[in-house]
Amino acid sequence: MTLLLLVIMIGYHGKKYTSYRPEGYAYFTLRYAILMVSFLINGVVLLLMDSIISASTMLFFRVFDQLSIKLLIY
Known about the structure:
Blueprint: H1 2-10, H2 30-53, H3 56-73
Helix pairs in contact: 1-2
Protein backbone atom coordinates (compact mmCIF):
# COMPACT_ATOMS: atom_id res chain seq x y z
CA MET A 1 0.00 0.00 0.00
CA THR A 2 2.81 2.38 0.85
CA LEU A 3 4.55 1.75 -2.45
CA LEU A 4 1.29 2.27 -4.32
CA LEU A 5 0.75 5.60 -2.54
CA LEU A 6 4.33 6.61 -3.36
CA VAL A 7 3.77 5.89 -7.05
CA ILE A 8 0.47 7.79 -7.02
CA MET A 9 2.06 10.70 -5.15
CA ILE A 10 4.99 10.95 -7.59
CA GLY A 11 2.80 10.52 -10.66
CA TYR A 12 0.12 12.96 -9.49
CA HIS A 13 -0.53 15.45 -12.29
CA GLY A 14 -3.23 17.49 -10.61
CA LYS A 15 -2.85 20.81 -8.89
CA LYS A 16 -0.49 20.45 -5.92
CA TYR A 17 -0.61 23.92 -4.42
CA THR A 18 -3.52 26.24 -3.73
CA SER A 19 -3.82 29.65 -5.32
CA TYR A 20 -3.67 31.20 -1.84
CA ARG A 21 0.03 31.71 -1.13
CA PRO A 22 1.08 34.03 1.65
CA GLU A 23 4.62 35.32 1.39
CA GLY A 24 7.08 32.50 1.93
CA TYR A 25 4.48 29.71 2.20
CA ALA A 26 2.72 27.37 -0.21
CA TYR A 27 -0.22 25.25 0.93
CA PHE A 28 -1.09 21.87 -0.57
CA THR A 29 -4.48 21.29 -2.12
CA LEU A 30 -6.81 19.03 -0.16
CA ARG A 31 -6.43 16.14 -2.64
CA TYR A 32 -2.63 16.24 -2.58
CA ALA A 33 -2.55 16.72 1.21
CA ILE A 34 -4.67 13.57 1.66
CA LEU A 35 -2.19 11.65 -0.50
CA MET A 36 0.78 12.99 1.50
CA VAL A 37 -0.75 12.29 4.91
CA SER A 38 -1.87 8.80 3.86
CA PHE A 39 1.63 8.04 2.61
CA LEU A 40 3.24 9.27 5.83
CA ILE A 41 0.85 7.35 8.09
CA ASN A 42 1.25 4.15 6.07
CA GLY A 43 5.02 4.56 6.17
CA VAL A 44 5.05 4.91 9.95
CA VAL A 45 2.75 1.91 10.35
CA LEU A 46 4.99 -0.11 8.03
CA LEU A 47 8.06 0.75 10.10
CA LEU A 48 6.28 -0.14 13.34
CA MET A 49 5.10 -3.45 11.91
CA ASP A 50 8.62 -4.23 10.71
CA SER A 51 10.08 -3.46 14.12
CA ILE A 52 7.51 -5.71 15.80
CA ILE A 53 8.13 -8.56 13.38
CA SER A 54 11.90 -8.30 13.64
CA ALA A 55 11.67 -7.96 17.45
CA SER A 56 13.82 -4.84 17.42
CA THR A 57 11.35 -3.22 19.81
CA MET A 58 12.60 -5.51 22.55
CA LEU A 59 16.11 -4.31 21.87
CA PHE A 60 14.91 -0.70 21.99
CA PHE A 61 13.15 -1.20 25.32
CA ARG A 62 16.14 -3.06 26.75
CA VAL A 63 18.43 -0.13 25.88
CA PHE A 64 15.86 2.32 27.28
CA ASP A 65 15.64 0.35 30.54
CA GLN A 66 19.44 0.33 30.91
CA LEU A 67 19.55 4.05 30.26
CA SER A 68 16.83 4.78 32.82
CA ILE A 69 18.62 2.62 35.41
CA LYS A 70 21.84 4.55 34.83
CA LEU A 71 19.98 7.84 35.17
CA LEU A 72 18.38 6.70 38.42
CA ILE A 73 21.77 5.73 39.87
CA TYR A 74 23.21 9.19 39.20
